[in-house]
Amino acid sequence: MLDVARIRKDFPILDRMVYGKPLVYLDNAATSQKPRQVIDALVRYYETYNANIHRAVHCLGEEATAAYEEARARVAAFINAPSPECIVFTRNTTEAINLVAYTWGRANVSEGDEILLTEMEHHSNLIPWQRLAQDKGATVRYIGLRDDQTLDLNGLENVFDARTKMMAMPHVSNSMGTINPVEKLAGEARRHGVMSLVDGAQAAPHMKVDVQAINCDFYAFSAHKMLGPTGVGVLYARRELLEEMEPFLGGGEMIRKVTFEGATWNDIPWKFEAGTPNIADVIAFGAAIDYLNEIGMDEVRAHEMEITEYALQQLGKLDDIILYGPRDSQQRGGVVSFNVADLHPHDIGTVLDRHGVAIRAGHHCTQPLMRRLGVSGTARASFYIYNTPQEVDVLVEAVKAARKFFRNDTA
Ligand code: 7TS
Hints:
- Helix content is 39%, strand content 17%.
- The protein is of the alpha/beta class.
- The chain has a seven-stranded mixed beta sheet, sandwiched between helices. The protein has a four-stranded antiparallel beta sheet with strand order 13-14-17-16, covered by helices on one side.
- Helix 6 (182-191) links the parallel strand 7 (164-170) and strand 8.
- Helix 3 (59-78) packs across helix 9 and helix 11 packs across helix 13 (389-410).
- Ligand 7TS binds next to helix 4.
């Protein structure tokens, strides 16, 4: 069991009041809050060893380089990557996926080829592939949903054909919380000689991820959703792929030798990290990983399952509520998406805000999925290690208040 009271003390922002009410932060799928340990790591870097990395001949530069590369090693261990060289730092999940679509995609996808996605993609695992397909004359196909809002994997072995080159999928849906069987999907892709990319933005923060067990080719996620700073993303890729892929961005640091005629590339992963990287935030991300490791990812997952079940149970008591995502808590992460009869999700969000409750309302960057569900958007509460059942109670009371407010308004 998590000691949530103790954890909450590490997050200064949780003492904040919003419109005179204690903040109830339930927008963790958008970004998480940051513990003191992460904020301190940023301050320590800027106050004591701020310097550029991989180039300095001075003490500060060496300290900063060591801390940056140590953070990479921690990220590798966190997802059980075989080595730190398989970890490329990007700005966010979005950039990690674009890197693959631009480099691997442009070299390996041609006219008439096919890219396989799912109907529950976040736009960041959709637009890069649509653009690649447009540029190359390839097509994008989608694995559909069953009524319980899990992926329809009936006949999975038949979805691949000789022209399928890439299968990309979310590990956990940000809009419905559905956990996808990525090990099975990546395994099936491999059996058919198809590459796999897992968008782990909503999984890496919330459960133990083992990229070798999943056996995918690429795995992408963002530091800011897992207690780390904004501006840092991770692309894990199999070593051989990184070796053979062309660089994404060109400039300093990613080269070995440059002449007026051309250039050769640095070793991996630096070949993919052109220019001065986000040194401070990568180092502070290392502190975020330490924090999560200290709690233990199995504990994080258990806490979220418990709080999600409680939220589903309490919200489910409201007779005019529609809940999205699978009912089985084994099959869902800490995201609860809902609609209340005829209320607009933005109206719900606005009333909740006045109660100090921060949620997201809208399409959650999954417009095709919303269309597939037949709604313009949903209200979404998303949980993390510092959320409590009492906060769920505040959420439920605020939803009741929203319903009452708008009912009276339109009566
Ligand atoms: N993939 C998934 C599944 C996501 O949930 C998100 C962000 C991204 C990719 C993109 O991450 P970024 O760090 O590159 O922006 N999801 C959300 C969300 O659900 N609400 O705000 C951002």
